[in-house]
């Protein structure tokens, strides 16, 4: 059963936690690897260059939006492809129940 008095605090912790993680990943892509390095890495994996720019922009801006509580549902929704895309890409040839390898395919 959900306690209505404390449910909003749980949502706050989850929202801020996800926001901090997304912001950290976005800033790493922007300032550590740089846009050119991030685009190059994404292309080496078979992703189009636009996916790298999408990831950089929406991880950074979406993370800030989640932390600040600015349209958090929209911010979480636009980050969903960033979270689900790599898993679907890595498992596209072997399927989610493949037990023959310990790691997912990277290229």
Protein architecture, described:
This protein has 3 helices and no strands. It has one domain. The model has no long low-confidence stretch (mean pLDDT 86). The termini are far apart. The protein has 107 residues and is mainly alpha-helical. The longest helix has 38 residues. Helix 1 packs antiparallel against helix 2 and helix 2 packs antiparallel against helix 3.
Question: Which features would summarize this protein structure in a list?
Answer:
72% helix, 107 residues, mainly alpha, 0% strand, single chain
Task: Set down the secondary structure blueprint.
Layout: H1 7-44, H2 49-68, H3 72-90
Helix pairs in contact: 1-2, 2-3
DSSP strand tally: 0
Helix proportion of residues, in percent? over 70%
pLDDT < 50 stretches: none
What is the radius of gyration computed over CA atoms, rounded to a whole number of angstroms? 16 Å
Number of helices: 3
Beta strand %: under 5%
Distance between the termini: 44 Å
Give me a quick take on this structure.
The protein has helices spanning 7-44, 49-68, 72-90. It is an all-alpha fold.
């Amino acid at each position: 059963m959900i306690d209505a008095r404390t449910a909003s605090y749980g949502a706050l912790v989850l929202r801020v936690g996800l926001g901090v993680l997304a912001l950290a990943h976005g800033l790493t892509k922007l300032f550590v690897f740089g846009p050119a390095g991030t685009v190059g890495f994404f292309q080496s994996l078979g992703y189009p260059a636009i996916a790298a720019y999408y990831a950089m922009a929406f991880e950074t801006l979406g993370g800030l939006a989640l932390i600040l509580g600015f349209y958090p549902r929209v911010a979480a929704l636009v980050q969903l492809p960033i979270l689900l895309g790599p898993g679907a890409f890595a498992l596209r040839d072997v399927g989610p129940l493949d037990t023959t390898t310990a790691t997912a395919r990277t290229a």
